Amino acid sequence: MELAQDVIEDVRNRLHRIAGQLQGIERMLDGGRECRDVVTQVSAATKALEQVGFRIVAAGLAYCVEHPEEAAADGYPIEEVQKMFMKLA
Questions:
Q1: Per-residue model confidence as pLDDT tens digits over 12-35
Q2: Which of 75, 72, 62, 66 is nearest to 85 (CA)?
Q3: Are 32 and 48 in contact (CB under 8 A)?
Q4: How many Cβ atoms sit within 10 Å of the Cβ of residue 78?
Q5: Rounded CA gap, 57 and 62, in Å?
Q6: How far is the C-alpha of 15 from the C-alpha of 20, rounded, in Å?
Q7: For the chain, which terminal residue's Cβ has fewer other Cβ atoms within 10 angstroms, N or C?
Q8: Going from the N-terminus, what domains does the chain have, and what CATH number goes with each?
Q9: What is the greatest pairwise CA distance in the chain?
């Protein structure tokens, strides 16, 4: 199953922001920031990464609903996409 270009662009943008968050966390550690501040940023980055996964799965689910035969032929029957979703949940 191929992701639509708009989904790819959205995911890339999200990953770029997450990379910036991770660099910020490293700077916080280097700067001796408070533990709670670092943990808050780690939590935000974790949530953002989860959203990337959900965005990809949502696109896959939409594809499966719109094109069930093609999705199954590509190796992505609806049950497989449901398993991917459960890995993120």
A1: 999 999 999 999 999 999 999 999
A2: 62
A3: no
A4: 14
A5: 9
A6: 9
A7: C
A8: 5-88 (1.20.58.1000)
A9: 55
